[in-house]
Design goal:
Layout lengths: L9 H22 L5 H23 L7 H27 L2 H22 L7 H15 L2 H5 L3 H22 L5 H23 L10 H26 L3 H8 L2 H13 L5 H19 L13
Helix pairs in contact: 1-9, 1-10, 1-11, 2-3, 2-8, 2-9, 3-7, 3-8, 4-5, 4-7, 4-11, 4-12, 5-12, 9-10, 10-12
Length: 298
């Protein structure tokens, strides 16, 4: 929870964050040896919440959320927990590359629609080009979706949920980030524990092991440090360049899937991945996120 090393440039911090977020897809698979799919998300949330609470206690952070924003924070927390659950299920049922490409393309399209319809955001050629590329990439996955690929469906739902989270995050600009995260992981823990007990009570702990415990703790720390690196990166680099660097997690995630699990994308998946990665880069150039926005990652 310490501040990012001041010797890091903004770009280096964001590249490190992209790598850490990409590794979470590998960690999901590793946690699955010890925890059930829903249980592992609940455990991750509980650990992050505990670390944040302990950190706030020792640092004396007593910032609260304004009453007018409490409902929005709770909504954000619930949708974020569901989105991360969708990501976890997707990674277990399809390749890491497919999960990342499908979820990011869906997030781009849904965010475009939400921004245009609800926020009345200005339409630009760059946005249209990004959406066209994302839709083209999604079209190459259409046969797999129509044939009932559960993993791709969960990835799609995860991307759509994330877009809704980001919309709510815009409304939370100015609210203390640490306070939001504490509520997010606290509410998420309660929700996911309930879902686990209701739907997979017989699949909570699969095999107790030292390796599984280490991976579980590492996962929580990765999420915290990666979030801090993102904030530091956006504060210390050009916004457009920062967003493009962060988009590199798509390629890094696909590479890690190959290195760790020998997941070799099919030719159509490679073409789709290239289209969606280009869409993410172009969309990032045209998007100017606030450092107060709350990132959502699995």
């Amino acid at each position: 929870m310490s501040k990012s090393n001041k010797s890091l440039s903004g770009g280096q911090a964001l590249l490190a964050a992209a790598f850490l977020f990409a590794t979470t897809n590998v960690l999901v698979r590793e946690m699955a040896h010890m925890w059930g799919d829903q249980a592992q998300v609940a455990v991750r949330f509980a650990l992050v919440w505990l670390i944040l609470v302990i950190y706030a206690h020792f640092k004396g952070h007593k910032v609260t959320i304004p009453r007018s924003k409490i409902l929005l924070v709770v909504m954000y927390s619930v949708i974020a927990a569901i989105a991360i659950l969708f990501f976890t299920l997707a990674v277990q049922m399809t390749t890491i590359a497919n999960t990342l490409f499908m979820s990011n393309a869906t997030e781009l399209v849904v965010a475009f629609l939400l921004g245009t319809i609800l926020l009345k955001e200005r339409l630009t050629r760059r946005k249209f080009l990004a959406i066209a590329l994302a839709l083209a990439g999604l079209a190459l996955y259409s046969d797999s979706l129509l044939s009932g690929s559960t993993g791709l469906l969960f990835a799609l739902l995860g991307g759509a949920s994330t877009a809704f989270c980001n919309l709510i995050a815009k409304k939370l600009k100015g609210v203390d980030l640490n306070a939001i995260l504490r509520v997010q992981f606290g509410v998420g823990t309660i929700l996911l524990v309930i879902l686990t007990l209701l739907f997979s009570a017989n699949d909570i702990v699969r095999t107790v092991s030292i390796e599984g415990t280490v991976v579980t703790i590492a996962f929580a720390l990765v999420l915290i440090f990666a979030t801090r690196l993102v904030l530091y990166g956006f504060q210390n680099s050009d916004i457009n360049i920062a967003s493009v660097v962060l988009s590199s997690q798509l390629a890094i995630g696909a590479l890690l899937g190959f290195l760790f699990f020998r997941e070799v994308p099919a030719p159509l998946e490679i073409v789709s991945g290239i289209l969606i990665t280009c869409a993410a880069i172009i969309g990032s150039i045209g998007h100017k996120p606030s450092i107060d926005d709350v990132p959502v990652h699995s």
